[in-house]
Amino acid sequence: MAVRGLLSRLTAPDPSRTPDEIESILGNLRAILNTRVGDSPAADEFGIVDLSDLVHNFPDAAQIMQRSIRNAVAKYEPRLRGVRVRMVPSEDPLRLVFEVSARLDKRKGTVRVLTEVESSGRVRVE
Prior knowledge:
Elements: H1 6-11, H2 21-33, H3 61-76, E1 80-88, E2 96-104, E3 110-117, E4 123-125
Antiparallel strand pairs: 1-2, 2-3, 3-4
């Protein structure tokens, strides 16, 4: 059974419903990947590097973002083990696409998620 935080239970349309574990993980990944390091008052290292901070680091920027995503997911999503992140080729040069794969902590099986870092810095998680 997936455990939800108090805020997610209070804001859910039906607080008594237990969320699907994968949906819960995806929601947490969205929160992690759309927060920039230093923006969380409770945890200074929560989130990923800001894309605008990487402008002067090209062509290494993609590897820096890849490492940042891997480290953040490994640290702040405890239900995933063996987190790996690989860059996926994109037709749009202004978007960085990564595949995040990991093992579920309590079940056998692998989770694969595509993330797309847009030029605005917003991260889509699918």
